[in-house]
Amino acid sequence: MKTYRIAVVRGDGIGPEVIASALEVLAGARRLVAGFGVELIEAPAGAETYREQGEALPASTLSACRAADAILLGACGLPDVRYPDGTEIIPQVTLRIELDLYAGIRPARRLEGVPGALAGDPAIDLVIVRESTEGIFASLGGGIVLGDQLATDTQVITRRGTERVVHSAFRLARRRSRARPRVTCVDKANILRSFAFFRQVFDEVAALYPDVKADHLYVDAAAMELVRRPEHFDVLVTENLLGDILSDLAAGLIGGLGVAPSADLGDRHAVFQPCHGTAPDLAGTGVANPLAAILSVVMLLDHLADTHGDPAPAAAARQIEQAVTTALASGEARTADLGGNATTSDATAAILRKFGSSHPA
Question: Transmembrane residues, as ranges (predicted)?
Fold first, then answer.
C-alpha cells in the first residue's frame, strides 16, 4: 500500500479553518477507500509565521514541500503584516517560483444547488490553465519607477515556458473525456508582439494533438464569451496576468471563490489550494465556506492517482465529489455566500454524513 506525504500549509485568516475541514473530509474518504495511506506533514508559512519567526517561508517548510508528494495550501497573508518595504507576505508565490510550478489549473464547474451569476444557469464545466512563472508577473519586484512620472514592468514570454504550459493544457483536455476536446488560446496577439509569439508557439504545439480542437480568442472577446456562453468552453490556456483575471471571472459565474479550487503544477511538485484569500474579517467566526479547500483535495487526490498510476486516491476523490454534490443539493452545505446559513462546521459535517449516499437527500 502506497503512503503519500502531504505537506500542509494552513496559512492565515480563514486558511487554518478551511484546511482543517478539508483534512476532515480527506480522512472520511480514506475510511471508505482502502489501498492508500496519507502522512500529513505540518509546514508553517504565511504572515503569522513571519510575525513569529521572522520568515514567511522557513527553510524547513520549503524542504518539507520539496520532499512531499503534494502540498495542501491555505491562503496566506494579512493586510497588517508586511515586509519592511511595505509589500505583502506572499509565500504562495515564492513556492511557485522555488518549485517551478508553471501551470496554474483553475477549474470552474457549476455545482447543483449553488446559484450561478447567469440567467438560465448554463452547464459550466471549463478549466483555465494559467502560465504561472512568466508573463507580466516576471517583473515581480523588478519594475522600474522613474521619479513620479513613469513606471514600467516587462512582460516575458519564452518558448520553453509557453510550450510546457500549452502541452499541459492539451494533455488536460484529453483527460477530460469530452466527445470533442477543445483548447482555446487566449491572448492579445493583435496588439503585442509577446502575445503573437505566445500564439505562434501554441499553434506549433497544437499540431501535435490532432485529436484536440484548437482555437484562439483575444482576451477581451474571451471575457465577453465567458459571460455570454460559458458552456462553449473546455480548456483555455493563457498568460499569467490574463489567467489571474479570467479565473476570478469564471469563479464568479459558478457561485464565487468559495467553490473555486485550484492547483499549481510543475514537473516534480504540485500545490493545491482554494482560490480565495485569507478573509481576515471572517477568521474565527466559523462561517467561512470550506468547499474550495475540500474540492482542492479532490484535485490533489486525482493528481496522486495520475502521477503514481494508483486508482485508490481517484476512488477517494469520487467519494468526496459525490458527497459534496449530495450535501449541496440538499442545502445542508450551503454557507452564507451560497445563500444558505450553514457554518463551516455544519457544511463539513453535512459532507461527512453524505459519504456513501448515491442520490441527493
Answer: none
Strands of the sheet with 70-73, listed across from one edge? 36-42, 2-9, 70-73, 270-274, 261-265, 103-109, 125-131, 235-238, 182-187, 213-218
In a domain, 111, yes or no: no
Domains in the chain, number: 2
CATH number reported for the structural domain that contains residue 157 in this entry = 3.40.718.10
Kindly report the number of other CB atoms within 10 A of residue 144's CB atom: 10
Model confidence pLDDT, tens digit, residues 7-56: 999 999 999 999 999 999 999 999 999 899 999 999 999 999 999 999 99
Together in a domain, 177 and 276: no
Which tens digits make up the pLDDT trace of 42-66?
Answer: 999 999 999 999 999 999 999 999 9
Q: Which helix (H) or strand (E) holds 296?
A: helix 291-308
| Helix %, strand %, coil % of the chain (to 5) | 45, 20, 35
Please say whether the beta carbons of 127 and 105 come within 8 A: yes
Instruction: Give the residue numbers spanning the domain of 125.
Output: 117-253
